[in-house]
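haha ok so turns out i had the wrong file open the whole time. this is the CORRECT one, sorry everyone. sequence first:
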Amino acid sequence: MFLGEYQHTLDAKGRVSLPSKFRQIMTGSVVVAQGLEGCLYVFPAEEYSAFLEGLLAKGDFDPRYRKVRRFFTTGAVETELDSAGRVSVPQVLREYAGLAKDVSVMGNGNRIELWDAAAWKTYKSETTENIEDLAKELADGGLL
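then structure:
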């Protein structure tokens, strides 16, 4: 399980180092894909396959499912960590997430998220302000 928040720097070749705790879990192939709210998702390949299976199971006849599936698959790349524990982020995905230099790397359960550090700071501040109301709303709806 991926947990915690770390600060790293994108190098000149578009690579970001993953925390050593994450590297211990992230073995073999990884998939980097667009995520929601302007971040990138980094999945172990097996987790991405399970995620994609869920999207594929919904079929092709509802345009909403097609749009969501396209969002998470176009631009997604399968790669491996290099010997230094870095993941290479293609230019198109760096542009989508606004990654230029400072990157917030965080665990989110079955995946890692990569955020532009300034965007993450803003998102985290806004979310922290509203988290109690959101948690109550979800709990009242039986979702927590």
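The chain has a mean pLDDT of 93.
again sry for the mixup
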